[in-house]
Amino acid sequence: MSPEPHVQLESDNSALPPTDAGVAPKGAILYVINEAFFFLQHRLPAARAAQSLGYQVHVAAPADHVWAPEGFDVDEIEKAGFVFHEIPLSRRGMNPFAEINTIWNLMRLYRSLKPNIVHHLTIKPIIYGGLASRLTGMPATVSSVTGLGQIFVSGGLIAALVRKIVVLGYRVATNRARCRVLVENPDDADFLAQVGAVRRDQLVHINGTGIPLDEFVPTAQTEATPLVILAARLIWEKGVKEFVDAARGLKSAGVNARFALIGDTQASNPRSVPEQQLRDWHDEGVIEWWGRRDDMPEVFRQSHIVCLPTTYGEGVPRSLIEAAASARPIVTTQTAGCREIVRDGINGLLVPPGDAGALEAALARLIDDADLRATMGAAGREIAAAEFSVEEVERRTLDVYRDIGG
Protein backbone atom coordinates (compact mmCIF):
# COMPACT_ATOMS: atom_id res chain seq x y z
CA MET A 1 0.00 0.00 0.00
CA SER A 2 1.46 3.34 -0.98
CA PRO A 3 1.04 6.62 0.89
CA GLU A 4 -2.25 8.28 -0.04
CA PRO A 5 -2.11 12.05 0.45
CA HIS A 6 -5.45 13.79 0.53
CA VAL A 7 -3.84 16.47 -1.65
CA GLN A 8 -1.86 15.56 -4.76
CA LEU A 9 1.76 16.54 -4.12
CA GLU A 10 4.40 17.45 -6.65
CA SER A 11 8.07 17.15 -5.93
CA ASP A 12 8.47 20.93 -6.02
CA ASN A 13 5.78 21.38 -3.33
CA SER A 14 3.63 23.34 -5.82
CA ALA A 15 0.40 21.90 -4.45
CA LEU A 16 1.06 22.93 -0.87
CA PRO A 17 -1.51 25.15 0.84
CA PRO A 18 -0.52 28.79 1.28
CA THR A 19 1.13 30.08 4.42
CA ASP A 20 -0.26 32.95 6.46
CA ALA A 21 -0.07 36.30 4.70
CA GLY A 22 3.20 38.09 5.30
CA VAL A 23 5.07 34.94 6.40
CA ALA A 24 7.98 33.82 4.24
CA PRO A 25 7.49 30.15 3.24
CA LYS A 26 10.07 27.73 4.68
CA GLY A 27 9.00 24.56 2.87
CA ALA A 28 7.37 21.53 4.45
CA ILE A 29 7.53 19.96 7.87
CA LEU A 30 6.22 16.41 8.11
CA TYR A 31 5.00 14.80 11.34
CA VAL A 32 5.07 10.98 11.32
CA ILE A 33 3.12 9.25 14.08
CA ASN A 34 1.47 5.90 14.78
CA GLU A 35 -1.88 7.38 15.82
CA ALA A 36 -3.47 10.42 14.17
CA PHE A 37 -5.51 11.29 17.23
CA PHE A 38 -2.37 11.41 19.37
CA PHE A 39 -1.03 14.10 17.05
CA LEU A 40 -4.18 16.22 17.47
CA GLN A 41 -4.22 15.68 21.21
CA HIS A 42 -0.56 16.40 21.91
CA ARG A 43 1.15 18.14 18.98
CA LEU A 44 -1.44 20.43 17.45
CA PRO A 45 -0.19 23.65 19.14
CA ALA A 46 3.43 23.02 18.09
CA ALA A 47 2.33 22.25 14.52
CA ARG A 48 0.29 25.45 14.37
CA ALA A 49 3.27 27.38 15.68
CA ALA A 50 5.43 25.86 12.94
CA GLN A 51 2.79 26.86 10.40
CA SER A 52 2.87 30.44 11.68
CA LEU A 53 6.63 30.39 11.23
CA GLY A 54 6.15 29.66 7.52
CA TYR A 55 6.25 25.87 7.32
CA GLN A 56 3.64 23.91 5.39
CA VAL A 57 2.50 21.21 7.82
CA HIS A 58 1.92 17.60 6.78
CA VAL A 59 0.94 14.63 8.95
CA ALA A 60 1.55 10.96 8.10
CA ALA A 61 -0.27 8.30 10.12
CA PRO A 62 -2.47 5.23 9.69
CA ALA A 63 -6.03 6.12 8.69
CA ASP A 64 -7.44 3.54 11.10
CA HIS A 65 -7.26 4.52 14.76
CA VAL A 66 -7.27 2.36 17.86
CA TRP A 67 -7.29 5.05 20.54
CA ALA A 68 -9.60 7.94 19.83
CA PRO A 69 -13.01 9.30 20.84
CA GLU A 70 -16.03 7.88 19.08
CA GLY A 71 -16.62 9.71 15.82
CA PHE A 72 -13.01 10.82 15.36
CA ASP A 73 -11.92 11.11 11.74
CA VAL A 74 -8.55 11.96 10.22
CA ASP A 75 -10.34 14.78 8.39
CA GLU A 76 -9.87 16.68 11.64
CA ILE A 77 -6.24 17.08 10.59
CA GLU A 78 -7.24 18.77 7.35
CA LYS A 79 -9.75 20.93 9.20
CA ALA A 80 -6.78 22.19 11.20
CA GLY A 81 -5.18 23.36 7.95
CA PHE A 82 -2.71 20.51 7.46
CA VAL A 83 -2.25 17.85 4.77
CA PHE A 84 -2.85 14.24 5.78
CA HIS A 85 -0.99 11.25 4.28
CA GLU A 86 -2.13 7.71 5.03
CA ILE A 87 0.67 5.26 5.75
CA PRO A 88 0.50 1.53 6.57
CA LEU A 89 1.79 1.28 10.12
CA SER A 90 0.75 -1.14 12.86
CA ARG A 91 1.48 -0.07 16.43
CA ARG A 92 2.17 -3.63 17.63
CA GLY A 93 2.54 -5.62 14.41
CA MET A 94 5.61 -7.83 14.05
CA ASN A 95 5.12 -9.19 10.52
CA PRO A 96 8.49 -8.52 8.84
CA PHE A 97 6.93 -8.01 5.41
CA ALA A 98 4.47 -5.45 6.79
CA GLU A 99 7.25 -3.65 8.66
CA ILE A 100 9.42 -3.46 5.53
CA ASN A 101 6.39 -2.18 3.64
CA THR A 102 6.03 0.62 6.19
CA ILE A 103 9.64 1.72 5.68
CA TRP A 104 9.26 1.52 1.90
CA ASN A 105 6.14 3.69 1.97
CA LEU A 106 7.82 6.24 4.22
CA MET A 107 10.72 6.41 1.76
CA ARG A 108 8.28 7.01 -1.11
CA LEU A 109 6.56 9.76 0.84
CA TYR A 110 9.83 11.45 1.78
CA ARG A 111 11.05 11.38 -1.85
CA SER A 112 7.74 12.80 -3.08
CA LEU A 113 7.28 15.52 -0.49
CA LYS A 114 10.93 16.45 0.14
CA PRO A 115 10.20 18.02 3.54
CA ASN A 116 12.72 20.38 5.11
CA ILE A 117 12.16 18.73 8.52
CA VAL A 118 10.67 15.36 9.46
CA HIS A 119 9.41 15.08 13.04
CA HIS A 120 8.99 11.45 14.20
CA LEU A 121 6.87 10.67 17.24
CA THR A 122 6.80 7.37 19.20
CA ILE A 123 8.98 4.29 18.82
CA LYS A 124 8.12 2.82 15.42
CA PRO A 125 8.02 6.16 13.56
CA ILE A 126 11.34 7.11 15.18
CA ILE A 127 13.06 3.89 14.09
CA TYR A 128 11.38 3.29 10.73
CA GLY A 129 11.15 6.96 9.85
CA GLY A 130 14.73 7.55 10.92
CA LEU A 131 15.93 4.72 8.69
CA ALA A 132 13.83 6.00 5.79
CA SER A 133 15.26 9.48 6.35
CA ARG A 134 18.81 8.20 6.14
CA LEU A 135 18.10 6.20 3.00
CA THR A 136 16.41 9.14 1.25
CA GLY A 137 18.80 11.84 2.44
CA MET A 138 16.36 13.93 4.46
CA PRO A 139 18.26 17.01 5.63
CA ALA A 140 16.91 17.37 9.18
CA THR A 141 14.96 15.16 11.58
CA VAL A 142 13.47 15.49 15.05
CA SER A 143 12.46 12.49 17.16
CA SER A 144 10.14 12.79 20.16
CA VAL A 145 10.47 10.13 22.85
CA THR A 146 7.21 10.50 24.77
CA GLY A 147 8.28 8.22 27.62
CA LEU A 148 10.04 4.87 27.56
CA GLY A 149 6.73 2.96 27.51
CA GLN A 150 6.00 -0.66 28.31
CA ILE A 151 9.05 -2.02 26.50
CA PHE A 152 11.46 -0.68 29.09
CA VAL A 153 9.46 -1.76 32.15
CA SER A 154 8.38 -5.24 31.05
CA GLY A 155 10.24 -8.31 32.27
CA GLY A 156 11.19 -11.53 30.51
CA LEU A 157 13.57 -12.63 27.79
CA ILE A 158 11.40 -11.44 24.90
CA ALA A 159 11.10 -7.95 26.40
CA ALA A 160 14.87 -7.86 26.95
CA LEU A 161 15.46 -8.80 23.32
CA VAL A 162 13.00 -6.16 22.09
CA ARG A 163 14.76 -3.54 24.24
CA LYS A 164 18.08 -4.37 22.60
CA ILE A 165 16.48 -4.04 19.16
CA VAL A 166 14.88 -0.71 20.09
CA VAL A 167 18.16 0.67 21.45
CA LEU A 168 19.98 -0.35 18.27
CA GLY A 169 17.14 1.08 16.18
CA TYR A 170 17.30 4.42 17.97
CA ARG A 171 21.07 4.54 17.48
CA VAL A 172 20.84 3.90 13.74
CA ALA A 173 17.86 6.22 13.26
CA THR A 174 19.17 9.24 15.16
CA ASN A 175 22.95 9.21 14.71
CA ARG A 176 23.04 12.14 12.27
CA ALA A 177 24.40 15.67 12.49
CA ARG A 178 21.08 17.45 11.97
CA CYS A 179 18.98 15.27 14.23
CA ARG A 180 17.61 16.18 17.65
CA VAL A 181 15.86 13.87 20.09
CA LEU A 182 13.27 15.48 22.34
CA VAL A 183 12.61 13.94 25.75
CA GLU A 184 10.09 14.98 28.37
CA ASN A 185 12.16 14.33 31.48
CA PRO A 186 15.88 14.18 32.35
CA ASP A 187 15.70 10.56 33.53
CA ASP A 188 14.83 9.43 30.01
CA ALA A 189 17.65 11.54 28.61
CA ASP A 190 20.16 9.94 31.00
CA PHE A 191 18.89 6.44 30.23
CA LEU A 192 19.01 6.84 26.45
CA ALA A 193 22.54 8.26 26.63
CA GLN A 194 23.79 5.60 29.06
CA VAL A 195 22.58 2.66 26.97
CA GLY A 196 24.02 4.21 23.82
CA ALA A 197 20.68 4.74 22.07
CA VAL A 198 21.21 8.48 21.50
CA ARG A 199 24.24 10.75 21.68
CA ARG A 200 23.97 13.11 24.63
CA ASP A 201 24.65 16.18 22.48
CA GLN A 202 21.52 15.39 20.43
CA LEU A 203 19.15 15.28 23.41
CA VAL A 204 16.84 18.20 24.16
CA HIS A 205 14.67 18.24 27.30
CA ILE A 206 11.26 19.89 26.83
CA ASN A 207 8.70 19.54 29.61
CA GLY A 208 5.85 17.45 28.22
CA THR A 209 3.64 18.66 25.40
CA GLY A 210 2.32 21.76 27.15
CA ILE A 211 -1.23 22.61 28.12
CA PRO A 212 -3.43 25.69 27.57
CA LEU A 213 -3.56 27.31 30.99
CA ASP A 214 -6.70 29.23 30.08
CA GLU A 215 -8.62 25.94 29.73
CA PHE A 216 -7.43 24.35 32.96
CA VAL A 217 -8.03 26.96 35.62
CA PRO A 218 -7.98 26.83 39.43
CA THR A 219 -11.34 26.46 41.12
CA ALA A 220 -12.26 26.14 44.77
CA GLN A 221 -12.89 22.60 45.88
CA THR A 222 -16.49 21.78 46.66
CA GLU A 223 -17.59 20.73 50.14
CA ALA A 224 -19.00 17.47 48.79
CA THR A 225 -17.58 14.07 49.67
CA PRO A 226 -13.93 14.09 48.52
CA LEU A 227 -13.57 12.66 45.01
CA VAL A 228 -10.31 10.95 44.04
CA ILE A 229 -9.84 10.34 40.32
CA LEU A 230 -7.43 8.35 38.17
CA ALA A 231 -7.55 9.60 34.56
CA ALA A 232 -5.54 7.56 32.07
CA ARG A 233 -5.57 4.84 29.47
CA LEU A 234 -6.76 1.95 31.58
CA ILE A 235 -3.85 -0.44 31.29
CA TRP A 236 -2.50 -2.32 34.29
CA GLU A 237 0.81 -0.42 34.26
CA LYS A 238 -1.03 2.80 35.11
CA GLY A 239 -1.58 1.39 38.60
CA VAL A 240 -5.27 0.62 38.22
CA LYS A 241 -5.18 -2.38 40.56
CA GLU A 242 -3.24 -0.45 43.22
CA PHE A 243 -5.80 2.36 42.98
CA VAL A 244 -8.69 -0.07 43.41
CA ASP A 245 -6.95 -1.85 46.31
CA ALA A 246 -6.31 1.47 48.05
CA ALA A 247 -9.93 2.53 47.52
CA ARG A 248 -11.18 -0.75 48.94
CA GLY A 249 -8.90 -0.45 51.96
CA LEU A 250 -9.95 3.13 52.69
CA LYS A 251 -13.64 2.33 52.39
CA SER A 252 -13.21 -0.69 54.67
CA ALA A 253 -11.58 1.63 57.22
CA GLY A 254 -14.61 3.91 57.12
CA VAL A 255 -13.00 6.77 55.16
CA ASN A 256 -15.68 8.89 53.50
CA ALA A 257 -14.53 9.37 49.91
CA ARG A 258 -15.41 8.51 46.32
CA PHE A 259 -12.99 6.98 43.83
CA ALA A 260 -13.41 7.18 40.05
CA LEU A 261 -11.56 5.74 37.06
CA ILE A 262 -11.67 8.07 34.06
CA GLY A 263 -10.76 6.45 30.78
CA ASP A 264 -11.45 3.77 28.25
CA THR A 265 -10.16 0.27 27.79
CA GLN A 266 -8.84 -1.21 24.55
CA ALA A 267 -9.63 -4.82 23.68
CA SER A 268 -6.72 -4.71 21.18
CA ASN A 269 -4.19 -4.07 23.94
CA PRO A 270 -3.35 -7.19 25.98
CA ARG A 271 -2.36 -4.98 28.91
CA SER A 272 -5.73 -3.22 29.08
CA VAL A 273 -7.94 -3.77 32.09
CA PRO A 274 -10.86 -5.88 30.78
CA GLU A 275 -14.16 -4.01 30.50
CA GLN A 276 -15.93 -6.67 32.54
CA GLN A 277 -13.45 -6.15 35.39
CA LEU A 278 -14.16 -2.42 35.37
CA ARG A 279 -17.89 -3.07 35.44
CA ASP A 280 -17.49 -5.58 38.29
CA TRP A 281 -15.57 -3.04 40.41
CA HIS A 282 -18.18 -0.41 39.61
CA ASP A 283 -21.05 -2.71 40.52
CA GLU A 284 -19.26 -3.72 43.73
CA GLY A 285 -19.19 -0.05 44.71
CA VAL A 286 -15.46 0.13 45.36
CA ILE A 287 -14.92 2.59 42.49
CA GLU A 288 -16.93 4.46 39.89
CA TRP A 289 -16.06 3.93 36.24
CA TRP A 290 -16.88 7.07 34.25
CA GLY A 291 -15.46 5.91 30.93
CA ARG A 292 -13.77 8.29 28.55
CA ARG A 293 -14.47 11.97 29.11
CA ASP A 294 -13.78 14.82 26.69
CA ASP A 295 -14.55 17.55 29.26
CA MET A 296 -11.51 17.12 31.49
CA PRO A 297 -11.52 20.69 32.86
CA GLU A 298 -14.96 19.95 34.29
CA VAL A 299 -13.79 16.57 35.62
CA PHE A 300 -10.91 18.23 37.46
CA ARG A 301 -13.29 20.89 38.81
CA GLN A 302 -15.39 18.15 40.40
CA SER A 303 -12.38 16.32 41.82
CA HIS A 304 -10.52 16.89 45.08
CA ILE A 305 -7.44 14.69 44.51
CA VAL A 306 -5.84 13.34 41.33
CA CYS A 307 -4.06 10.01 41.53
CA LEU A 308 -1.80 8.18 39.07
CA PRO A 309 0.06 5.22 40.68
CA THR A 310 1.83 4.36 37.43
CA THR A 311 4.73 1.99 36.85
CA TYR A 312 4.68 2.80 33.13
CA GLY A 313 7.56 4.49 31.31
CA GLU A 314 5.96 7.94 31.29
CA GLY A 315 7.24 11.10 29.62
CA VAL A 316 5.41 13.64 31.74
CA PRO A 317 1.79 12.49 32.18
CA ARG A 318 -0.49 15.08 30.62
CA SER A 319 -3.24 14.32 33.11
CA LEU A 320 -0.94 15.35 35.96
CA ILE A 321 0.00 18.61 34.26
CA GLU A 322 -3.69 19.34 33.75
CA ALA A 323 -4.38 18.44 37.38
CA ALA A 324 -1.66 20.79 38.62
CA ALA A 325 -2.94 23.61 36.40
CA SER A 326 -6.42 22.99 37.83
CA ALA A 327 -4.98 23.42 41.35
CA ARG A 328 -5.60 19.84 42.42
CA PRO A 329 -3.16 17.99 44.70
CA ILE A 330 -1.65 14.85 43.20
CA VAL A 331 -0.68 11.44 44.51
CA THR A 332 1.59 9.57 42.13
CA THR A 333 4.64 7.33 42.07
CA GLN A 334 8.30 8.12 42.52
CA THR A 335 9.05 7.46 38.85
CA ALA A 336 10.55 9.27 35.88
CA GLY A 337 8.18 11.85 34.46
CA CYS A 338 5.85 11.90 37.46
CA ARG A 339 8.43 13.53 39.69
CA GLU A 340 8.92 16.19 37.02
CA ILE A 341 5.50 17.64 37.72
CA VAL A 342 5.02 16.54 41.35
CA ARG A 343 7.37 17.87 44.04
CA ASP A 344 6.90 15.65 47.06
CA GLY A 345 5.22 17.53 49.90
CA ILE A 346 4.83 20.68 47.80
CA ASN A 347 2.07 20.05 45.26
CA GLY A 348 1.48 16.40 45.96
CA LEU A 349 2.77 13.18 47.45
CA LEU A 350 5.06 10.59 45.87
CA VAL A 351 4.82 6.92 46.80
CA PRO A 352 6.82 3.83 45.77
CA PRO A 353 5.49 2.21 42.58
CA GLY A 354 3.40 -0.90 43.17
CA ASP A 355 2.85 -0.16 46.89
CA ALA A 356 -0.93 -0.07 47.48
CA GLY A 357 -0.39 0.42 51.22
CA ALA A 358 1.71 3.57 50.75
CA LEU A 359 -0.80 4.78 48.20
CA GLU A 360 -3.66 4.24 50.65
CA ALA A 361 -1.82 6.18 53.38
CA ALA A 362 -1.04 9.11 51.08
CA LEU A 363 -4.63 9.33 49.88
CA ALA A 364 -5.94 9.15 53.45
CA ARG A 365 -3.70 12.07 54.43
CA LEU A 366 -5.12 14.31 51.71
CA ILE A 367 -8.71 13.13 52.07
CA ASP A 368 -8.62 14.11 55.75
CA ASP A 369 -6.98 17.54 55.26
CA ALA A 370 -8.83 20.07 53.10
CA ASP A 371 -6.34 22.84 53.96
CA LEU A 372 -3.41 20.74 52.78
CA ARG A 373 -5.26 19.96 49.56
CA ALA A 374 -5.78 23.68 48.93
CA THR A 375 -2.15 24.57 49.70
CA MET A 376 -0.77 21.83 47.47
CA GLY A 377 -3.22 22.69 44.72
CA ALA A 378 -2.12 26.33 44.67
CA ALA A 379 1.53 25.26 44.49
CA GLY A 380 0.74 22.94 41.59
CA ARG A 381 -0.84 25.77 39.61
CA GLU A 382 2.32 27.86 40.04
CA ILE A 383 4.49 24.98 38.80
CA ALA A 384 2.26 24.32 35.78
CA ALA A 385 2.18 28.01 34.83
CA ALA A 386 5.94 28.44 35.16
CA GLU A 387 7.13 25.26 33.45
CA PHE A 388 4.40 23.47 31.49
CA SER A 389 2.45 26.06 29.51
CA VAL A 390 1.79 25.33 25.86
CA GLU A 391 3.49 28.61 24.93
CA GLU A 392 6.74 27.52 26.58
CA VAL A 393 6.68 24.14 24.83
CA GLU A 394 5.93 25.82 21.48
CA ARG A 395 8.82 28.24 21.94
CA ARG A 396 11.33 25.53 22.75
CA THR A 397 10.14 23.25 19.95
CA LEU A 398 10.43 26.06 17.39
CA ASP A 399 13.94 26.76 18.67
CA VAL A 400 14.83 23.16 17.76
CA TYR A 401 13.32 23.54 14.27
CA ARG A 402 15.29 26.74 13.73
CA ASP A 403 18.47 25.09 14.99
CA ILE A 404 18.40 22.19 12.52
CA GLY A 405 16.20 23.49 9.73
CA GLY A 406 17.10 27.15 9.41
Quick gist of this model?
This protein has helices spanning 36-42, 44-53, 75-79, 96-113, 123-136, 157-174, 186-194, 240-252, 275-284, 296-302, 318-325, 338-341, 356-367, 370-387, 390-405, and strands at residues 4-5, 27-32, 55-61, 83-86, 117-121, 141-145, 179-183, 203-205, 227-231, 258-262, 288-291, 305-308, 330-333, 348-351.
Q: What strand order characterises the main sheet? A: 1-4-3-2-5-6-7-8
Number-wise, the strands total 14
* Sequence stretches where pLDDT stays below 50 over 5 or more residues: 1-24
- Amount of helix: 40-55%
The average pLDDT is 87
Question: Main sheet?
Answer: 8 strands, mixed
Task: Provide the β-strand percentage band.
Answer: 15-25%
Q: What distance separates the N and C termini? A: 33 Å
Shape call: globular
Task: Characterise the protein shown here.
This protein has 406 residues and is of the alpha/beta class. It has 15 helices and 14 strands. The chain has helices spanning 36-42, 44-53, 75-79, 96-113, 123-136, 157-174, 186-194, 240-252, 275-284, 296-302, 318-325, 338-341, 356-367, 370-387, 390-405; strands at 4-5, 27-32, 55-61, 83-86, 117-121, 141-145, 179-183, 203-205, 227-231, 258-262, 288-291, 305-308, 330-333, 348-351. An eight-stranded mixed β-sheet has the order 1-4-3-2-5-6-7-8, sandwiched between helices. A six-stranded parallel β-sheet has the order 11-10-9-12-13-14, sandwiched between helices. β10, α9 (275-284) and β11 form a beta-alpha-beta unit. α5 (123-136) runs parallel beside α6 (157-174) and α8 packs across α13 (356-367). The protein is globular, with a radius of gyration of 22 Å. 45% of the residues are buried. The model is unreliable at 1-24 (pLDDT under 50).
